[in-house]
Amino acid sequence: MIHNIKYFRGVMLTCMLLCLHAGISSAQNATLSQIHIDEYFSYNSLDSIYRVFNHKYGVKVEYDTAFCKTKKISYWFHSTDAEQAIKITLRNTDYTYKITPDNVVHLVKQELTETDKPIKDPEPDWAQEKPKEKALPPIAVITNDYSGPAQTTHFILSGKIKDRSNGEAVPFCLIRVRGTSLGVTTNADGYFTLLNVPSDTSVLLINYIGFRITEFHLTPKLPKEQLSVELEPLSRSLNEVVITGQRESAMNVNNTEVSTLKMTPQKLAQLPNVGDKDIMRAFQLMPGVSSSFESSSGLYVRGGTPDQNLVLYDGITIYHVDHLYGFFSAFNANAIKDVELYKGGFESRFGGRISSVVEMTSKDGNQKNFNIGGEISLLSFNLFTEIPIKKKWTFIAAFRRSFKGPIYDEIFSKFNSTAVSNASNGGSGGGGGFGGRHGGSNATTPASYFYDLNSKLTYRPSDKDVISGSLFTSTDNLDNGFDLNTPSFLAAQGININIQNSDLTRYGNLGAAVKWARKWNTKLYSNTLISYSNYYSDRDKTNAGTITDASGNTKTFSNGTIETNNLIDYSLKSDYQWNPLKGNIVGFGAFVSYYDIAYNYSQNDTSTIIDRRNYGLLGGGYLQDKIKLFNDKLQLTPGIRWSYFNVTNKTYNEPRFSAIYNFNDKWSFKAATGSYYQFVNRVTREDILSGSRDFWILSDGNRIPVSNALHYISGVSYETLGYLFSVEGYYKVLSDLTDYTQRFNVSPTRINYSENFYTGSGTAQGVEFLAQKKFGKLTGWISYTLSKTRDHFSVYSNSDYPSDQDVPNEFKIILLYKWKRWDFSTTWVYATGRPYTAPSGAYGVTLLDGNTADFFTVTSQNSLRLPDYHRMDISANYNLKTPEGRNIGYIGFSIFNVYNRANVWYKTYQIVGSQIVETDVDYLGIVPNITLSLKLR
Amino acid sequence: MQMKQLKTGCLLLLLLSFCSCKKEVADPSFTDTPVVQGYLEPGTTPILNISRQVAFSSTATYAPDNINALNVQIIYNDTVYTMKPLGNGNYVDSNLFISKNGTYGLRFAYNGKTVSATTSIPPKPTGYSESTDTMSIVQEGTGATGGGGGLGGYRPNPFIMSWSNPDASYYIIVVENIEVNPVAINLNETAPPRIFRNQPTQSNQYQINSREFHFYGRHRMILYHLNPDYASLYNNDGSSSLNLTNPQTNLTNGLGIFTGLNADTLMVTIYKPL
């Protein structure tokens, strides 16, 4: 496999070079009008521009070097044909051009060619494309009306970046000082500090996805502290990629993280969906995040499982992200402002998980105007409102609820028919108690649903303080039970019968937090959070009821299985960012979490199989320094996280280190390593009759050890304004993993299910390739991941075997195309089939009641593969605009699994006669959806 | 032009990805392991059944051993009892009667390996009692109850079966109708079962409702005291690729169950109201 990886690395690079070479070669044979240029130049000389034209597009230009080295322009060529591009470069000059038969452009002075008058400057291409929509140019220039010399040099500048439309702080946006390598990223509250700004007439270049690139001209009159800069949101007139690697910005100098993906939820609607736009599903389209797990919206990142992925919502740890059996995630995109996924090698400020981190920042709410909006699809409806309260308060709330429409019903019935099928396949062995005679008149089936609510109240008592309270709750109520009521003929006899046959799964999250962010001075910023997070999961599969006879005597009865898991996490953490001197950003903080985790599984109301309740205290701190060296070309981030866990009475040290070397403005090399511990684990209890169940438990340092991972990551990226090519490799060593199975009895005299936890280890390695086109009418990316994930649990096998989430090959194409008011998109994913364990043989055992239970012996663990997974989704959105061109929503059409591929979810087996019959259980087939989205602003 | 590059890249990557798919080699190995089924009850002569597995692969090869001519031995107090074959994989030794509280071993050779197991006879249940020994149930499927298939009318008190279980051992209740020609409670039911049971429980009581009965007449309420290896059979019936693992067994080099039981029985009667 390693050989394969090496082979692939070479092939991929060759492939990229071939692609570029092919483009250049073909360009030389084309006429200039057939060559389209997509480039952005910021105050570049004509000499450098023509070099790019030549090397990248094959456009040869003969020119006066002395003139072209001094003449500089800024311009965005957006699918501009080469001849037009040449004309644009010569605006306001004495030069015009001639094209010789060999397609070489010759620049000549105007006075020498009286017949070749310069052509009138064309309209900018964006204006040509979108004249009716009044599209904004991609660059916003804020000059601040000053002309004169600088008055201050080498000073500290601090401030805040906001969204002009609603006053929202813009988190994690890149700010660079033009002409220097000086740059910084805003924090989660939009604050930034730039040390050693050359002069108070410098120009800031500010870039954030979804906003116009802004040139902000500093002047001596502007404040050097608490500077406020407002960015103009892009109208939908610009074609922009929805998801992008953080380092896809032109301002590579600000690339401060390794293996980080960034998303703007507001653009999610452009992607196909199965019922609702989904943050977690969108991440699954990127390399390194598996996309073939339709029944989990949790992320499988680089061979990790969803429980190894830390999910933070405004700092609150969220333990369960699934709606409706995992087909949707529990996060409402309308309430979220920014999402970042750290695929590995993450910083010391994150802890408690061994694979990855998803950090979500919710919206503060519109500070300027009241806003309301909503969406309705075939799955759910969604409402949100933003309310500014005087000047210092804002409030936002977003609510979503499913209804039993066609999509909900399809998923619900698929899952539940599967469960029924399993039950019948289970034979008589497992049995669920007494069979009973069939009855069923006057049965009613209660409704199933899910909902979630996000709300946030923000208070800004001063320019330096932001206090916010966040509330997040989500609930799934999956009810497959039914009630039996008194038939009329019995009611007439005075008999009253009320029987509830429960098959209820109810789970959800409740998270609440109060955060205080303070900018103490230009160099120190703090963020303190106290949070409560509760995950609960209740499974009730029982029969219960009351019967009242004609004499008024009432009897009650109840039996079945009941399972509850309740996790409570109280946390307090305080993070600090300190900029002591240029080139250093010191991060430090402290945290403490108290866990109360209970899990109970009982049968027949009387027999408790597992009953655990554990308490734990986890506390510690971290320290890291982001050091920039060699004119910011090299960035080193050493750090250490220290934790004390009272259950094991041990301390855990997690040293981490990352490095980024920006060879030039296009090539970057990066590497990271680190140690990671996980103290709260999710394990799966197998139950074929009623579906396997996940539950969270606390490590006890004994049967459930504290999990550990070591990450090793390296990569290289080549990036221009319009394109990104990236290759990144990883290797992870996992130890002290926990699995739970009832299949092996550790006690010779007694079944003790609470002891059936097993410890194992694993490795994950892989290479990810990404090629992305970021601008133009057609945008998108292609990605390929080659990976290998192995587990080693001696209870299953004496040797390493493919883990359940091992997907060696994943290939994804995502294309988005804009045409007038329409946004079209298509995604196609291909993945090697997941491993599974098949039976080698089967046998029956006659039980004491005379029935026969079927049993299967198996091949080596996970030694076979399901058929390869592939699926295409398409969507088309028609954007609704006011006469002034303002977006007020869209009508979306989406088709999931457009060619109705029968992707296999798993296989079931039955003994029929003297044969074992294998049956495929498939994932969702084709699912169309329509969405109507409207908003006031 | 860039799109041409992208398209070319896409196609190349696609081809490469397919080329790189190194198919995992299936593990076709099927080991012909014998399946044993033996329940040892005090005072009875054990009957063992030995069978072969059903192979998933049609090309699997079986051991040459004759399933009806094995040298099957039960060891008790260092005495070896050789079982006599009865055909169809059944073996018996009429000289051997299972003793209470005894420990028994099993041994035979199959496919070049020695198959063995050991089990103990659990103590007889104590304190076994029932809340009542009769129950009246209205017949269904007659004109009086509106056509049957429904709830069948008035529900009597359930049987509450109790026993002593201070050490949380495993028990199971099997209910068997013992009438020669039993009358069905629901006339619309086709081939209702004469015998039924609950799941193993570590409790000291179990409630059996009238709905569980299918026939009128006398019923044996057999309470078995179980070893954990039998109880584990009830959590060992995975049939999906999501959770298949080798089933639990208390046999070495074998599959199935070889376990001791001890039972107590009470009688109840189900009658039709006058």
Q: What do we call the CATH homologous superfamily of the largest domain in chain A?
A: TonB-dependent receptor, beta-barrel domain
Number of helices of chain A: 9
Mean pLDDT of chain A: 78
CATH fold-level topology of the largest domain in chain A = Maltoporin, Chain A
Order of helices and strands of chain B: HEEEEEEEEEEEEEEEEHEEE
- Total domains of chain B: 2
DSSP, total strands of chain B: 19
Per DSSP, what share of the residues of chain B sits in E-state strands of 2 or more residues? 35-45%
Largest sheet of chain B: 5 strands, mixed
Describe the oligomeric state of these chains in a short phrase. heterodimer
Interface with most residues = A-B, 123 and 101 residues
Shape summary of chain B: globular
Q: How many runs of DSSP E, i.e. beta strands of chain A?
A: 55
Number of domains of chain A: 3
> Structural class of the helices, strands and pairings of chain A?
mainly beta
- Gyration radius of chain A, rounded: 31 Å
Separate helix tally of chain B = 2
Strand content of chain A: over 45%
Low-confidence stretches of chain A: 1-29, 111-137, 236-254, 417-445, 745-751
What's the helical proportion of residues of chain B? under 10%
Distance between the termini of chain B: 93 Å
Give keywords.
heterodimer; A: about 950 residues; mainly beta; Phage tail protein beta-alpha-beta fold; Immunoglobulin-like; Maltoporin, Chain A; 22-stranded antiparallel barrel; six-stranded mixed sheet; 9 helices; globular; disordered N terminus; B: about 270 residues; 2 domains; five-stranded mixed sheet; five-stranded antiparallel sheet; 2 helices; 19 strands
Protein architecture, described:
- The complex is a heterodimer of chains A (937) and B (274).
- With 937 residues, chain A is mainly beta.
- Chain A is 10% helix and 53% strand.
- Chain A has 9 helices and 55 strands.
- The two termini of chain A are 52 Å apart.
- Residues 1-29, 111-137, 236-254, 417-445 and 745-751 of chain A have low confidence and may be disordered.
- Chain B is 8% helix and 35% strand.
- Chain B has helices spanning 2-19, 228-231; strands spanning 35-40, 47-51, 54-55, 73-76, 79-82, 84-87, 90-92, 103-110, 113-120, 129-130, 134-136, 159-162, 170-177, 195-197, 205-208, 217-226, 251-252, 255-260, 262-271.
- In chain B, strands 6-7-2-1-18 form a 5-stranded mixed β-sheet, with no helix packed on it. A 5-stranded antiparallel β-sheet of chain B has the order 5-4-8-9-17, with no helix packed on it.
- The longest helix of chain B has 18 residues, at 2-19.
- Chain B is globular and about 65 Å long.
- The termini of chain B are far apart.
- In chain B, 43% of the residues are buried.
- The model of chain B is unreliable at 13-27 and 144-153 (pLDDT under 50).
- β48 of chain A pairs antiparallel with β3 (54-55) of chain B, so a sheet runs across the interface.
